[in-house]
Design brief:
Layout lengths: L6 H4 L8 H11 L3 H14 L6 E7 L5 E8 L7 E6 L2 H8 L2 H8 L3 E5 L9 H8 L4 E8 L5 H10 L12 E8 L7 H35 L1 H8 L8 E14 L1 H5 L4 H21 L3 E6 L2 E7 L5 H28 L6 E18 L2 E7 L1 H10 L9 E4 H6 L7 E7 L8 E6 L2
Parallel strand pairs: 10-12
Antiparallel strand pairs: 1-2, 1-6, 2-3, 4-5, 5-6, 7-9, 7-10, 8-9, 10-11, 12-14, 13-14
Length: about 425
């Protein structure tokens, strides 16, 4: 459908004066996406636009989710938010959706009557028809224009009129009405003219959300927040007390010589997920993955020291108890298995930016980190999966009553022997 102005439609206008400025102001404030959509839809609706449903969607950078969708209905009181997972099922749904149809054909606008008896074009229309909806309109507001020749070729291939401004990346907006005569074309033109303001406001917040997600995914939640709020100067660090978690996998080097590349990566990801889960579930933060191992901390700042130690010990016990079950399931499926070694230590660390001027890392450094690494190296010689320093044991309070001493042991590069402990069986 072409959203061209006709003489008849010019008379049907909505009072949308000031809406563009209102959207820009909201975008500058960085309001959450659902608040921006709710305010926009409510103003359009109260101005007389007869939509009973509106949906906004956009892609995102997230390790688990590929897109966000927000659904508005008048009088609902809240926006329905749905993160779209990167899964086969979600992919199939997307390939049968209006947004894929538009993007793959170079369309920035689409309109359909959905109360006809014609063969179903999009599965979503069946759901809309059940809600009593009759008319459907959708737009893509691109972030950047695509190559016009490729776009025109796509339009010719599908016997569609060429359009201008299509892009693979942008904001998708759709609405539907239950009014028997459907939408007024003049109203649709007005709505289409306001959508670039909505897209600009949304992109302002979405850019921040994506940056937060990416930084927290690669640095951890607390480190990511610190970097995003300005802690990016090289050499700046804060001295904090923390429980240090240093773990790695046993047997990974052997598997690198025997497994195909894809199987090796899948195996490593599965095991790192198994090691990371107890940390996340017990208030820890993973700072980095190092090959087949990981470095994590449990920050004591603002928290009771014994409570933080208990969280770390609980995570260690969960890892120890879950690993045999995890490996049994893999054996039953004919998959390779590995073991793990973990050290828990407590001490003061420098938490901040280190590295080169053009490539920084936000991490922890200091003698306590080195000692944790040395303790972890003793897991194999002592035939233990979990080793715990006396420093942590002394701070753990009642949580340490189930720890078993393994005696004093020399740590490479450390002057005095350390008493080490392990979890009671």
């Amino acid at each position: 459908m072409s959203l061209k102005t006709s003489e008849a439609s010019k008379a049907a206008t909505l009072d949308l004066d000031g809406l563009g400025r209102w959207l820009v102001d909201r975008g500058m404030q960085g309001l959450p996406l659902d608040e921006q959509l709710a305010g926009f839809c409510q103003q359009i609706y109260e101005a007389g636009f007869p939509m009973k449903r509106a949906m906004m969607g956009m892609g995102t950078l997230h390790p688990r989710y590929g897109a966000h969708t927000f659904l508005w209905r008048p009088g609902a009181g809240a926006i329905e938010y749905t993160p779209r997972e990167r899964s086969v099922m979600s992919r199939q749904e997307y390939l049968r959706s209006p947004v894929y149809y538009m993007r793959s054909r170079g369309l920035t606008a689409l309109r359909r009557r959905i109360d006809s008896n014609e063969p179903e074009e999009f599965p979503i229309f069946e759901d809309l028809r059940k809600e009593g909806l009759i008319d459907y309109a959708a737009w893509i507001i691109p972030y950047r224009p695509a190559d016009r020749e490729a776009m025109a070729e796509g339009a010719r291939k599908h016997d569609l009129p060429p359009v201008h401004g299509q892009a693979l990346d942008g904001v998708f907006f759709s609405c539907a009405s239950d009014r028997p005569e459907g939408f007024d074309e003049g109203h649709l033109i007005q709505l289409g003219e306001t959508l670039p303001y909505l897209a600009l406001a949304v992109k302002s917040r979405l850019t921040y959300d994506v940056a937060s997600t990416v930084i927290e995914t690669y640095l951890g939640k607390d480190a990511g927040h610190r970097v995003l709020t300005g802690a990016i100067e090289r050499g700046t660090a804060e001295a904090i007390r923390a429980v240090i978690w240093f773990s790695d996998l046993r047997g990974f080097t052997r598997l690198t010589d025997s497994l195909p590349r894809d199987v090796l990566m899948e195996t490593l990801d599965d095991y790192l997920e198994a090691m990371a889960r107890p940390v996340h579930e017990n208030h820890g933060q993973i700072l980095k993955f190092m090959g087949d191992g990981l470095l994590a901390t449990f920050n004591l700042t603002g928290r009771d020291e014994a409570t933080v130690c208990r969280d770390a010990l609980t995570a260690a016990a969960q890892l120890r108890d879950s690993f045999p079950i995890f490996n049994d399931a893999r054996r039953s499926a004919g998959k390779p298995v590995m073991d793990f070694g973990l050290a828990l230590h407590l001490g003061e660390v420098l938490y901040g930016n280190i590295g080169a001027s053009e490539r920084l890392d936000f991490t922890v450094v200091g003698p306590a980190v080195n000692e944790a690494s040395r303790v972890q190296a003793l897991c194999r010689p002592l035939n233990r999966n979990v080793l715990i320093s006396s420093t942590l044991r002394d701070s753990a309070g009642e949580s340490a009553t189930d720890l078993v001493s393994l005696g004093f042991h020399a740590l490479r590069g450390v002057r005095e022997p350390h008493e080490l402990f392990t979890l009671a069986t």
